[in-house]
Design a protein that fits this description.
The complex is a heterodimer of chains A (about 350) and B (about 650).
Chain A lengths: L2 H24 L9 H34 L17 H29 L7 E8 L2 E6 L5 E3 L2 E4 L4 E7 L4 E4 L6 E4 L5 E5 L5 E7 L11 E7 L1 H16 L2 H11 L7 E2 L4 E2 L9 H5 L6 H10 L23 H12 L6 H5 L2
Parallel strand pairs in A: 1-5, 4-10
Antiparallel strand pairs in A: 1-2, 2-3, 5-8, 6-7, 6-9, 9-10, 11-12
Helix pairs in contact in A: 1-2, 2-3, 4-5, 5-8, 7-8
Chain B lengths: L32 H24 L7 H21 L3 H7 L27 H30 L9 H35 L8 H20 L18 H4 L3 H29 L12 H33 L12 H18 L2 H15 L6 H15 L17 H10 L1 H15 L8 H24 L1 H7 L3 H31 L5 H28 L13 H31 L31 E2 L14 E2 L4 H12 L1
Antiparallel strand pairs in B: 1-2
Helix pairs in contact in B: 1-2, 2-8, 4-5, 4-6, 4-19, 5-6, 5-8, 5-17, 6-8, 8-9, 9-10, 9-11, 9-12, 11-14, 11-15, 11-17, 12-14, 14-15, 15-17, 15-18, 17-18, 18-19
The chains are: A alpha+beta (about 350), B mainly alpha (about 650).
Chain lengths: ~350, ~650
């Protein structure tokens, strides 16, 4: 190969490499880093990117040079130089990529091993995924449940994921980590949030018609605020039965589907809970028994105008005291507007 | 005059008319027999289901799910095949009645009608394959346009969730099972017997049957939109349990895959036997063109891997229709088993969709660069390396699935190692260009476009192979970008390289070079504008398979949708060029590319049995620029053969 060709190749390679590097650096590629795991992932990302830019620049240089330099003139019917191979080159382009991918494999393995471990004792949260909602149970906090994920900053968390119908996948892009929730299995995911803020929890495994809307929030708070939130929730649960029931109602987002005037909810996806007394006459059960059964076994009796399978069957996992509080809240005659509504 | 038709080779004339008189025509193989045979076999399937249920006293007797599975999707297609005449010879043989004497009446095509008959000529079958797959490519492309229309804005505009999920699921299924895989099989069907100096494939009737399974599979997948409840919407991956509990359209996917898979396996067996047993004298393995090597390896992959996807789909079907519990956890099923079985096929399937393209690229680049392919043996061996490694990487699709965590690192290592043989191929193509005399004709543009796009697809594959990055970007648009760079920039570009390269041979006409280049540049630009930004929005966090998304991705999605319409429009140029050139293009020379491989040494289109005399292979297929080198000696070269023998005897 002539020296001129090598110089041209290097020049084109540097130009292409610089252009691609500019795209890599100037465009804001990665989401905000809000966890230690995301930082490690991003390191592997940039490590791989550097290698890929080099390879791409090399290929582009040879390709561009060849297309411009070796293009045959229209009247040129001759053949090229019959080069059949070059053992040295062939060994080189077998060995060098092998070394590069080994490097990527090692860096990845180290990052993976670190991301699989929590530094310090993690707090445990059980994540239940169902079509098309998330619920988070704080195992260290008397099984307090919430539909938003609230985390104290800089505290390692171990999520155990369960799915009650089909496969879902938990992802907060700012945390980086992702894990499928699989029916019949328990999977785990470790996260150490490093930034205070509100992030989106999305489902990234196609789970049916509402897949795109299976979203929740992850709220990372200062330790003190988090403690305060926890104690408020606890207090509500341990407070008067009505207060506890109201908290359970809110924590499980019952109002997301049901109208219930005492809680101020107006959704019409499921039956109107202001009319529970009338509905109980359908199966002819006592009100309290009817409400309890409708929560834990929603398809035992389905109100006319609504379809079975609409309500998740996961509320049988509510702790007994919370269930009791919820039933009492829903059946309590203390809701003043209830009788008025029933009259309609 | 028939001899003026472009598809009639000059040495052959039409055989005598085969039409029987009057009503008996409805008994002869063909389209008149199709309707009543299909109906008859549908009735048989229906009778089996209803009969068994009535006898066993099961309620309901008319179980439409079982009837659809057995009668509509199994026996009726068999009736169609019987009607069109795919089984006539075998049935006669099996029942001991005299088989029709082989008059070669099912060889060659003398009018357009011959392409709609069971034809055992590999050249006709090749064209049937390519045309059918282009039809399904256009259908799948239209579905993609609808997907992009929906995604142009955040929120839902045109389609509800069920329809949208059906659109992208059927799009991917058609593109994979009815376009990329069979399009390569079709091109190879036409070219491979010619390249190895054989008169036809080893099993011509099996070859015909494997073609006729394709339209069945394609129509089955498309018609799932007509099922009450909607088309299958669990993606082309059809993960259980969603595919078990989803709409009954899933049955159409489960069974469509069986028909397409059976077609694939039959063709692969045919290629293997043909390549092993029917090479011309002197055509050793190390003298085979790389396309033959590529299809040999691909066929091994197909034969070993395809039964796994058949199994996975049968299990899903059984879970739904027969109430078994392969994947439903409540009753002892194991959900992740589906993914393991599915990907044990579907990862090798990626190579089934790539290796023939590697072969086409090698043919085109060597001829158009007027140089021997660089490192021929290493090129062939790297195909074999990909074949072997390809079976050991399936779980890299499952890094976030919850499978055993210790599997991740070994699977990452094998995955990354595949970059080595793939890199060898890319560098060897580049080295083949070096100091060549590049003819930047349309096929060469597609081949070079393939190399550059495939490099991008390969590099994004490295990101996905590295477990930590994969955990972050899995199931996002980064994956969508990656597979489209591999399957569109890779497979589709080489399919077009192949179609343009062999168009003169297949049709005897020359396509319009100007339109071909226009098509290339429109597709190339439209493709990059459409799919490159998907890397960005994927890394930034846009999940795949959603009709609605975070408004932060709105601008890019609008840009991508507009680009995708440009990409879609570029194929109008292609279709126009193909139709007009086939009908009215200038006659093609026997060897317009001055290529050495055997298919170019016969007329365009080739004689009915390819070679008037069996060629004698004497050298390597890519000896461009080597003074006096020959790949083969054909008709009239007998003196040269004898001279060689004499020299050798001395």
């Amino acid at each position: 190969m002539r020296r001129g060709a090598i110089l041209s190749l290097v020049a084109i390679g540097l130009i292409v490499g610089a252009a691609v590097t500019a795209v890599a650096v100037l465009v804001d590629w990665l989401p905000e880093q809000a966890s230690k795991e995301r930082e490690r992932i991003d390191f592997v990302f940039w490590f791989t990117t550097a290698i890929c830019i080099a390879i791409f620049a090399l290929v582009a240089a040879v390709m561009l040079y060849a297309v411009v330099k070796f293009r045959a003139r229209p009247d040129d019917d001759s053949d090229g130089r019959p080069i059949h191979g070059h053992t040295g080159l062939e060994i080189a382009w077998t060995a060098v990529p092998a070394v590069l991918v080994t490097g990527i494999a090692i860096v990845s393995t180290v990052a993976l091993a670190q991301n699989d471990r929590s530094s310090g004792t993690p707090m445990s949260i059980e994540v239940t995924a169902r079509q098309f909602a998330w619920s988070f149970k704080y195992l260290d906090e008397q099984d307090l449940t919430s539909t938003t994920l609230r985390l104290p900053v800089d505290q390692p968390v171990k999520l155990t994921l369960k799915a009650s119908d089909v496969i879902h996948s938990f992802w907060v892009k700012e945390f980086g980590q992702k894990q499928d929730a699989v029916p019949g299995m328990v999977t785990t995911l470790r996260i150490t949030p490093t930034k205070v803020g509100r992030f989106s929890v999305i489902c990234t495994e196609l789970c049916g018609l509402g897949h795109a809307f299976m979203r929740s929030k992850a709220v990372v708070m200062e330790r003190a605020q988090y403690e305060q939130w926890i104690s408020e929730q606890r207090q509500a649960l341990n407070g008067s039965p009505g207060q506890a029931g109201k908290a359970v109602f809110a924590q499980n987002s019952c109002g997301g589907c049901h109208t219930f005037t005492p809680a101020g909810s107006k959704s019409e996806v499921g039956p109107n809970l202001d009319r529970l007394a009338a509905q109980a006459k359908g199966p002819g059960q006592p009100l309290e028994q009817f409400v309890r059964e409708s929560i834990v076994k929603p398809d035992a009796y389905v109100e006319r105008g609504f379809s079975a399978d609409l309500m998740p069957e996961t509320y049988d996992q509510l702790p007994k005291d919370q269930l009791d509080a919820l039933v009492q809240y829903l059946t309590s005659p203390a809701s003043p507007k209830k009788s008025k509504k029933e009259g309609r | 005059m028939r001899t003026e038709e472009p598809w009639v080779s000059s040495t052959e004339l039409s055989p005598a008319g085969r039409k029987a008189p009057g009503w008996r025509r409805a008994l002869a193989p063909g389209w008149l027999r199709v309707p009543w045979m299909t109906a008859l076999f549908f009735g048989i399937g229906l009778g089996i289901v209803v009969g068994i249920r009535a006898l066993a006293g099961w309620d309901p007797v008319w179980d439409w799910r079982a009837i659809t599975t057995v009668a509509t999707l199994t026996t009726a297609p068999i009736g169609f095949l019987a009607g069109i005449g795919a089984f006539d010879y075998w049935v006669r043989y099996a029942i001991g009645s005299p088989t029709a004497p082989e008059d070669h009446s099912s060889h060659g095509a003398y009018s357009w009608r011959d392409y709609f008959r069971v034809n055992t000529d590999h050249k006709v079958i090749g064209i049937q394959y390519v045309s059918t797959t282009i039809f399904f490519f256009l259908a799948g492309g239209l579905l993609a346009m609808m997907v992009r229309a929906e995604l142009a804005q955040p929120g839902t505009q045109f389609f509800d969730s069920q329809t949208y999920n059906g659109l992208f699921s059927v799009h991917a299924s058609l593109m994979i099972f009815l376009f990329v895989i069979p399009a390569f099989a079709g091109l190879a069907n036409y070219v491979i017997p010619l390249m190895i100096g054989a008169p036809d494939m080893a099993f011509p009737r099996l070859n015909a049957l494997s073609f006729w399974l394709l339209p069945i599979a394609g129509i089955m997948m498309l018609s799932s939109f007509l099922v009450p409840g909607g088309a299958f919407g669990a993606g082309w991956t059809g993960y259980a349990p969603l595919s078990v509990v989803g709409t009954d359209g899933n049955i159409f996917f489960n069974m469509g895959v069986q028909w397409a898979g059976a077609s694939s396996i039959m063709t692969a067996l045919n290629f293997l036997v043909t390549i092993i047993t029917m090479r011309a004298p002197g055509m050793t393995f190390w003298r085979m063109p790389l396309l033959v090597w590529a299809n040999f390896t691909t066929s091994l992959l197909v034969v070993v891997a395809t039964p796994f996807i058949a199994g996975s789909q049968f299990f899903v079907l059984f879970d739904r229709v027969m109430h078994t519990n392969f994947f439903l956890p409540g009753d002892g099923g194991y959900t992740l088993a589906y993914q393991h079985i599915f990907w044990f096929y579907s990862h090798p399937a990626v190579y089934i969709m790539m290796l023939p393209g590697f072969g086409i690229a090698s043919e085109v680049i060597s001829v158009m660069a007027r140089k021997p392919i660089f490192g021929y043996r290493l090129m062939a061996l790297s195909l074999m390396a990909i074949l072997v490694l390809g079976f050991s990487v399936w779980a890299h699709h499952m890094f976030v699935s919850g499978m055993a965590t210790y599997l991740r690192v070994p699977m990452m290592i094998t995955t990354l190692l595949i970059a080595v043989p793939t890199g060898i191929k890319v560098f060897s193509w580049l080295a083949t260009l070096w100091e060549g005399k590049l003819n930047l004709s349309t096929p060469m543009l597609w081949a070079l476009g393939f190399v550059s796009m495939f490099v991008i697809g390969g590099l994004s594959g490295i990101y996905l192979g590295a477990v930590p990055i994969d955990i972050a970007v899995s199931d996002t648009y980064f994956v969508v970008a990656h597979i489209h760079y591999v399957l569109l920039g890779g497979s589709l570009f080489t399919i077009f390289a192949g179609i343009y390269y062999w168009f003169p041979k297949m049709t005897g006409r020359q396509y319009s070079e100007r339109l071909g280049k226009t098509h290339f540049w429109l597709t190339f630009v439209g493709f990059n504008l459409t799919f490159f930004p998907m890397h960005l929005i994927g890394v930034q966090g846009m999940p795949r398979r959603v009709a609605d998304y975070d408004p932060q991705f709105g601008d890019w999605n609008l840009f991508i949708s507009i680009s995708s319409f440009l990409l879609g429009a570029s194929f109008i140029v292609f279709v126009y060029n193909m139709i007009v050139s086939w009908a009215r293009g200038p006659a093609a020379e026997a060897n317009p590319w001055r290529a050495m491989t055997l298919e170019w040494q016969v007329s365009s289109p080739p004689p009915i049995f390819n070679f008037d005399e069996i060629p004698q292979v004497v050298g390597n297929p890519y000896e461009y620029g080597v003074p006096g080198a020959r790949h083969a000696l054909l008709n009239g070269d007998q003196a040269a053969v004898e001279e060689r023998e004499r020299v050798r005897a001395r």
